[in-house]
Amino acid sequence: MGDGETIEEAIKDVKSAFISYLDFALKNGEEIKEPSHLTKTRRVNITVPIYLLEKIDKYAKSLNKNRSTFLVESALKQIKKEKYGRE
Predict the structure, then answer these.
(1) Does 25 or 51 have the greater pLDDT score?
(2) Distance separating alpha carbons of residues 60 and 69, to the nearest angstrom
(3) Which of 1, 58, 60, 85 is deepest in the core (most CB within 10 A)?
(4) The domain containing residue 62 runs over which residues?
């Protein structure tokens, strides 16, 4: 396993090995963590007009979200829309 003669075969072997690992880990009750790059955060400073910040906060609150969550989700939605032409 892992000795694929082509890149495609090697990728297939790696995927198969990963699936086997996941199957083993789940059967044995092991914790499978999310990749750390998906859970790490960084505090940033941005400049936003006060009137707009108040509107953002009010709207986010109406959605039961905090400002950071609302801004991140809005940014991801915009990126997806521009990249894939849909929301």
Answers:
(1) 51
(2) 8
(3) 60
(4) 41-87
* Distance separating alpha carbons of residues 79 and 22, to the nearest angstrom: 31
Q: Taking a C-beta distance cutoff of 8 angstroms, is the pair 13, 4 a contact?
A: yes
pLDDT in tens, 11-20: 888 999 989 9
b/e for 6-42, b at 16 or more Cβ within 10 A?
A: eeeeeeeeeeeeeeeeeeeeeeeeeeeeeeeeeeeee
Mean per-residue pLDDT, 60-65 = 96
Please report, for the domain that includes residue 70, its CATH number.
1.10.1220
Tell whether pTM > 0.70. Answer: no
